[in-house]
Amino acid sequence: MDPRTRGPAAGSQPAADRQEREEVTVRCWGTRGSIPSPGPATAGYGGNTTCLELRAGDRRLIFDAGTGIRLLGNKLLSEQTREASIFLTHFHWDHIQGFPFFAPVYNPEFRLRIVGPEQEGAGVEALFAGQMGPIYFPIPYEALSASLSFEHLNEGTWEEDGIRLMAMRMRHPSFTVGYRAEVHGKVVVFIPDNELLGGPFPAVRGWREKLEEFVGGADLLIHDAMFTQEEYPRREGWGHSTFEQVLELALGAGVKQLFFFHHAPERSDQELNQILARLRHHVRERGWTLGVHAAFEGKQVAIQEG
């Protein structure tokens, strides 16, 4: 038999299927912080609040449920996806306000796992049910017809099907975590709310060193950069970092690509472009190889196993 016409050997995997299995894709569905900010001045980077999607083969991992999750939900149903997991960093409004508009939760054929940190003894399900109480929302929590399951992860590790997630507490009001995802040998770190310096947060011995290890060697770091250096003194203690502070963290931790995230609602596209150009120039001047970007809605990054 001509080898060119022979089918795959027993136990082998076609190249296209193998590539699909090994590729890790990250897509931003909402990159704004605090409150949605639609309009012509923010259309480029987007006005929806925090939501990130990570795809690994047929697995769908969603980080935070800000208003960006609405369009993601529509896409999942159009693709006939029937299962996903949501990992929450915390429960401030801009991170959960899209959940009642996430269409899959009204589909009885959809299975959704929701994982997040407890808040002063309040569990994840109770917090979501409270959000959908009649004072805040017209559709009751009981109307959700998807198969829902809830888990708690304040700090520690979650593992399943070759995916390893680690949660670490960040410096932000309420119990807030960041996530480090290790998938197919690739590392994606998502920290949307974190004050790297300053603020009235409890001093935890070795926290900075632990954070650098948590972020260390990431193929992709997505980190809160809500303020400029000039703005920060008037907003210290709000639980957010500056662009320069995040750049320093990424360089010290050997990160390959950095995406600034949780853009201030009043930050225009033009301002973000100017900040990005200045910091990229700074990186080039010093001969550093770090890729520096600002996350925008629809931005998709494919990370291949290599």
Give a structural overview.
It is a single chain. The protein has 306 residues and is an alpha/beta fold. It has one domain: Ribonuclease Z/Hydroxyacylglutathione hydrolase-like (Metallo-beta-lactamase, Chain A, 4-Layer Sandwich), CATH 3.60.15.10. Helix content is 22%, strand content 25%. The protein is built from seven helices and 14 strands. The chain has helices at residues 15-22, 69-78, 93-96, 124-131, 207-215, 243-252, 269-285; strands spanning 24-30, 51-56, 59-63, 83-87, 111-116, 147-152, 156-160, 163-169, 177-183, 186-191, 220-224, 257-261, 291-294, 300-303. The protein has a seven-stranded mixed β-sheet. Strands 7-8-9-10-11-12-13 form a seven-stranded mixed β-sheet. A hairpin with a 7-residue loop joins strand 8 (163-169) and strand 9. The longest helix has 17 residues, at 269-285. The protein is globular. It starts with 14 loop residues before the first helix and ends with a strand.
